[in-house]
Amino acid sequence: MLQSTSALLLVASLLAALPVNADGLYAKKSGVLQLDQKGYNKLIAHSNYSSIVEFYAPWCGHCQNLKPAYEKAAKNLDGLAKVAAVNCDDDANKPFCGQMGIQGFPTLKIVTPSKKPGKPRVEDYQGPRTAKGIVDAVVDKIPNHVKRVTDKNLDEWLAEDEESPKAILFTEKGTTSALIRAVGIEFLGSIRVAQIRNMEVEAVEKFGVTEFPSLVLLPGNGQDPVIYDGELKKGPIIEFLSQAASPNPDPAPTKAKASEKPKPSEPSESEATTEGSPKPLVPVKAPLSAPAIETLATAEALEAACLAPKSGTCVLAFLPQSGEPDVEIAGHAKDALESLAEVSHKHVQRKTKLFPLYNIPAGNTASKTLRAELGLSEDTQTVDIVALNARRGWWRQYDPSAGADYGVTRIEAWIDAIRLGEGSRNKLPEGVIVTKEEFEKKAEHDEL
User: Fold this and answer.
1) Per the database record, which ranges form the Thioredoxin domain (predicted)?
2) pLDDT, tens digit, for every residue of 353-381?
């Protein structure tokens, strides 16, 4: 009997000495994201959301005591911020934990997005190790992209990029809640979100708001405002606003279960092979290139699309004069058109609205005139990209920098700045926009 007991104790001690499962303290179904360095870089460092990350060891008593509060915090912060954990006892994670300066367990760090993608602000959490303490600290760090609007500046805000959809929360609160800030993050770059207090009488009457809080969607393109009548929860609100634009994609773990693997498809007769023989190679389809942007080949087409009195924002790519007819464009002009096409294609795939982008060939008789009126280069071999808005009377030019960068990254950043109303604008010179009388006269002539 003594020998049997001793044997059991020996087995128990050996099991206790075995390496801890890499999943550590948190089960796969936990609301706490389990990360390694790659996951941290993808899901946390490049996220638009704030996060809190626990660095722990499964054998640590303090870590085990924190687990219930940390999982409760993850549940309360669901949809508002990310709650994650890194098992520093896992050999694969030890170098990463060292890079993060971890010297004791548990260590909690709050990660907040910065203006530099992939380089967030990281600071130690020093508050109480309770669910409430963690939630309060993280909520305080949620980025706020919601504009505070009053009766005085409402019209100005509505006039900014009129074609883009907007959403307004009418509320009795003077602060911006975590929920509406999370909505602003979700639609960052696609829907402008604002908040108006119930004391702003003119704004309240303008949209016919009678209850607070109320969320109003302005779909854009002259469509009537729509008042949301669902639950004030993030999921239903996102679904409601998605009718105007798709949510901004943010790194997030997939919902598919680990056990759910794609089933292999049955081979066709041509693919069938005898046992032991090599399987035939399946040709990989080349990715489809983005469709070219529309060309405005005539002065009339350019005037109708972008230079009429009520024309909205247009981006125009003025191409250089080719030395020989029917020669395919090359160099910077080709790079510019391909980049613009890719940006346009991205918005089509995301189902987000973007103002039109046009190719203006040198053969368009209005090209040289408009170049001169805007004070662009007289060099017939240059490519110039400008954005203009006839209705608002402004224009701005793309700066390719000294390196003549017409790559998609720089051009997309310039276009995003226009969409967000950022950057300086120039006043359109007189004579650029076709007068109402001229436009109506030309329209009548076209109808005849």
Assistant:
1) 14-144
2) 899 999 998 888 888 889 889 988 766 67
- Listed in sequence order, the residues at least 6 apart from 329 whose beta carbon sits closer than 8 Å to its beta carbon are 319, 322, 337
Which residue carries 């005591």 as its tokens? 65
Predicted confidence (pLDDT) at residue 254 exceeds the cutoff of 90: no
The CA-CA-CA angle for residues 132, 138, 143, to 5°, reads: 145
Neighbour tally for 366: CB within 10 Å: 17
User: pLDDT of 7-56, one tens digit each?
Assistant: 434 433 433 333 334 458 999 889 999 999 999 999 999 999 999 999 99
- Could you identify the residue written with the tokens 């276009």? 415
- Distance, CA of 183 to CA of 325 (rounded, Å): 52
**Whole-number Å distance between alpha carbons of 383 and 345:** 21
Task: Please work out, in degrees rounded to the nearest 5, the angle formed at the alpha carbon of residue 118 by the alpha carbons of 288 and 188.
Answer: 70
User: Rounded distance, CA 424 to CA 36, Å?
Assistant: 42
Sheet harboring 33-35: ordered strands across? 33-35, 82-87, 51-56, 107-112, 121-124
Beta bridge partners of 191: none
Share of the chain above pLDDT 90, in %: 54
Global model pTM greater than 0.85? no
Complete domains list, the chain, with CATH? 19-139 (3.40.30.10), 147-241 (3.40.30.10), 294-447 (3.40.30.10)
